[in-house]
Amino acid sequence: xxxxxxxxxxxxxxxxxxxxxxxxxxxxxxxxxxxxxxxxxxxxxxxxxxxxxxxxxxxxxxxxxxxxxxxxxxxxxxxxxxxxxxxxxxxxxxxxxxxxxxxxxxxxxxxxxxxxxxxxxxxxxxxxx
Length: 129
Description:
It is built from five helices and seven strands. The protein is of the alpha+beta class.
């Protein structure tokens, strides 16, 4: 291979390597807006601004998709115990008492809590103090 061809090949490989590294760094999940948030989780930090509301109001504002189950109302599971349909129980829980809210789709909820959760589940973990 001629020296000029070697230089071109080397320059191409170097440019390709830099582009690959730049792409890997750009997809790290942290950008100008901060880390990506889990669409199936609301943490106490995210809920802090809504402490005076109940969980139904907050979910309607921040994650309305959770309440649109294909096969019915999602089931509320509070601290590991299934309570019942979100429409009946979620509004009874004050956001100030919540550590996190997590949505489980119907398949995951059924695997964890049985066949009665066809609309998915909203898992509420309360602060224990």
